[in-house]
Design goal:
The structure holds two protein chains of two kinds. Chain A is built from 28 helices and two strands. In chain A, a hairpin with a 2-residue loop joins strand 1 and strand 2. Chain B has a single domain, classed as Orthogonal Bundle (Helix Hairpins), CATH 1.10.287. In chain B, helix 1 runs antiparallel to helix 2. Chain B is elongated. The chains are: A mainly alpha, B mainly alpha. Chains A and B meet through helix 28 of A and helix 1 of B.
Chain lengths: 723, 97
Amino acid sequence: MSAVIAPVIALAQGGGQAAAEAAHFEPFLPGLVVLLPLLGFVLNGILALRHGRDSAAAVRRGEELDLGDRASRPATHTLPTWIGPGVLGAAFVITLVNFARMFGADLEAPVIVHYWTWIATGTFTVEAALQLDQLSMIMMMVVTGVGFLIHVFSVGYMRDDAGYPRYFAYLNLFVFFMLVLVMGSSYALMFVGWEGVGLCSYLLIGYWFSDREKSDAGKKAFIVNRIGDVGFLIAMFLLFRAFGTVDFVPVFAEAETLVYAGGLVTAITLFFFLGAVGKSAQIPLHIWLPDAMAGPTPVSALIHAATMVTAGVYLVARSSVLFALAPLSSAVVAGIGVLTALFAATIALKQNDIKKVLAYSTVSQLGYMFVGVGVGAYAAGVFHLMTHAFFKALLFLGSGAVIHAMHDAYHSTHSHEDAQDMRNMGGLKTYMPITWATMWIATLAISGIWPFAGFFSKDEIIWQTAAFGGAENAPYAALYSVYWIVALAAAMLTAFYMTRMMVMTFHGENRTGAEESKHLHEAPAVMWVPLAVLAVLSVFGGWINVPEAIQTSWVGLFGALPTGEWLHHWLEPLTAQAHHIQEANLGELAHSAPFGGGEVLWATISTAAAAVVVFLSIRFVGGQKTVPVAQDETAPSGFGAVLLNKYYVDEFYDRFVVQPIVRASRFCWKTIDSLVIDGAVNAVGLVAKAFGWGVSMFQTGSVNTYAFILTVGVLVILGVAVL
Amino acid sequence: MITEALMLSAILFVIGTFGVLVRRNAIIMFLCIELQLNAVNLSFVAFSRMFGIEGQIFVFFVMTVAAAEAAVGLAIIISIFRHYETVNVDSFNLLKW
């Protein structure tokens, strides 16, 4: 998106000159970008509270809540339509202005916009400050731009939901925290955003909280993320111990005082990566993301595909200097990434829920991003993050449109069939042509078919892995060669399961039901326009980073595609230090893959292979007989069952993590708390009681006894005094 | 002179204490307590010859308090007698919990 729009704006501002002068970058109201979504949250939140109160009052009066009649909806239900997307649109416009200014300026060092000192204790301070540089700018563009489109889509998708204002309040709050995450000038501020987006994720997954399964999914996401957050915190403490600060600029300036591949920097980066694993749903903490599909579909698009889950990739890219200093950590990052990419892709092969396919696809693509940042190709990782935000948001929104139509169809006949199960779909192409066309674009993009966005970004990552594996001095070079082959294999699987999803959903005969299919409909304009915009971005988004080395080959249309490695150069001020460290310690990377062959050859092979896989799977899946869920009696057996059940990872965790913790907790409760601690307290009470009972024996009530004791007492005291 | 006075005081006090401990009749015990008080009064008066008038003043206080105590104590004994028709302290044990 950036590449398409920014030059236009730069031109509008007298672009050519501005760029030539290498103007000084002057931030334009960066605080407002963050504050606008917060304002939206406050306004929508107030509306949500009023809305809830009014609805409760109406229910108490015995009135029926009828949202079907759009004209009679209260203002609390209609205002969020304007506030929710409105604040995002405004934030996006301000971001665009900032982007245009940065585009015109030759920004060498990050610009810090300081507001106030948040924490000041001794030598340690945390400033409430925003950092504006090339990386945060890309993230801001993605968050506000894609976020705005998804907000608009949400209007169509969620309009008939009773909790509509609450939905937009949470969504705005999420964007606020996400912007704090990407714009904060220190790890501490980033952590604020990190926790905040986790909270919003929890709130939105459990948005339909009256459904026990959905609120449990929210809790699962929150708890699994906690495990990663511990890593983030420990890494931050270690950083503070090493440098006395957690601000980005001073930390990276002093980072090279750490020993290359030393224990400390390896520990810091591994702990940061633990945080990233939790947030970005990598093995072994990937289990929460598929369950997170319990939330509304636009939420899955925004939070669980385009933005929040990429925070881990952003974290690694932001800490590129540290990761470049720790080759072992980088190998772990790339290893976990490639393992996740393959693992999730295989699970996606067998899923029947359309959103589950996309969820595992997201996990898999996030794995690719980690491969990218793990091999030191930070720009490539961020590039895939960006293109993935386009096509995965499009896929999720498209699936939202499908589910919306399916839901309406089943609603009209009061059927309780599963509106998300692809076995109930089929042949939707005739009913929803726009959704069909845009989703095919995204599918080709994610499959890595030239010239769609995903081809350039994924190929860049795969190629960089190959180059790393072929390098002479690279540590674990053999390992990286394995990574490269696995990444190629996972790319083929991606092409297969995405095509399978498209064929099952849109092609073949319709399996929704004779009566129901009459109610299938294309999404309204408010929903399909965002799809169309994202489709355009999914086509052209990759062109901003055509590798320079192969731009003159057919991949770059023999030099016709624009801006060779624009994103790479754009991020250079931030990645230069990491590359410098890498080069100083490892030397040049290879220019051919481990088995020979240059970048052009392997790009050709991978896109041709992906195209063949897409073609074959259309034939293969199209030839298969799919039956609706209600009539489907075949249970998958063998490895298929293992895939359908996600390798039984959830069951494994339940057996070996959850149940032991439950048992340990029960032991602590029943034995330690009830028996030992309560027992000790009760025993003390009993002793006091028994002692009192014994002493009370002296209290006979007889005056004589008292007189006697009194006299003896006086005599004893006198005796002691005299002696 | 003072030695004799203090000896007498001590003898009276011991008689009083002995009476409180061994007798069972409430009136008699009461009288014995009065005896103890007055034994102390005697020592006060004796010491006042040596140390000044304060001892004698203190005796007035003791007598005043003793009179008040006698009034209350006798009232209690009468009340107990009305209830139990006896003043033998062994036959009632009211002074507990």
